[in-house]
Specification:
Layout (H helix, E strand, L loop, with lengths): L2 E6 L8 H16 L4 E6 L10 H8 L7 H19 L2 E7 L7 H10 L6 E4 L2 E4 L5 E7 L13 H10 L4 E7 L8 H13 L4
Parallel strand pairs: 1-2, 1-3, 3-6, 6-7
Antiparallel strand pairs: 4-5
Helix pairs in contact: 1-6, 2-3
Bound molecules: flavin mononucleotide.
Length: 199
């Protein structure tokens, strides 16, 4: 039995393409792996705070020197990190906002890239500690960017996931969602065709 963690980050609850992709993923995954558990963390409904002095204090100070706010921030960061550590499969839904990922998703990443917990520094450089996990990134984009220098989602997310040890990452892009003609339909069909191979 595997544990699946789905991260939602579209600001839209209705008409969101990336949420449509995670719904399709969930239906297909549950049909193929009925015993698996699926946890959803919705960063739009429940945003996590941005990295601030309290969080840095919580991470860096010894327990006896932390104030209440630092302790609270650390606790929240621990919950998010433990949720990720417990997952076997990570599914990240990422709309493209201003050529990159939603700030809510960046804020979550800032909580879970934790020195000594999800990566560590060694004599030979940083080493990711989240081995044995697989990830799927389901993106929705108004335009078409895959493989171009203007795609600041896929290279960035590959970098951060690789940094914490997740190297088995598949990207599924629904592109051209806001273009005219039949771009929307074609882009969605392509993404769904790739998704149907996943479960
Ligand atoms: C604030 C904002 C910024 C956006 N920036 C881009 C962008 O830089 N490039 C792009 O192709 N589409 C952009 N879009 C369009 C979205 O990527 C597209 O509508 C996508 O379907 C959003 O994901 P969702 O349907 O899951 O909400 C933007 C949309 C919003 C709301």
């Amino acid at each position: 039995m595997s544990r699946v963690l789905i991260i939602e980050s579209s600001a839209r609850q209705q008409d969101s393409v990336s949420r449509q992709l995670t719904q399709t993923f969930t239906q297909q995954w549950q049909a193929a792996h009925p015993g698996d558990s699926i946890t959803v963390r919705d960063l739009a409904r429940n945003p996590v705070p941005h990295l601030d002095a309290n969080l840095l204090g919580g991470w860096m100070k010894p327990a006896e020197q932390r104030n209440a706010a630092e302790q609270d921030s650390l606790q929240r960061s621990n919950e998010l990190t433990e949720e990720l550590l417990a997952a076997d499969v990570l599914v990240m839904a990422a709309p493209m906002y201003n050529f990159a990922i939603p700030s809510t998703l960046k804020a979550w990443l800032d909580h879970v890239l934790r020195a000594g917990v999800t990566f560590k520094y060694t004599d030979t450089g940083p080493q990711g500690l989240l081995t044995g996990k697989r990830a799927y990134v389901l993106t929705a984009r108004g335009g078409i960017y895959a493989g171009s220098a203007a795609d600041h989602q896929e290279p960035y997310l590959r970098q951060v996931m690789g940094f914490i040890g997740i190297h088995d990452v598949e990207f599924i892009h629904a592109e051209g969602m806001n273009l005219g003609g039949d771009f929307h339909e074609k882009g969605l069909n392509q993404a769904n065709a790739k998704l149907s191979q996943v479960a």
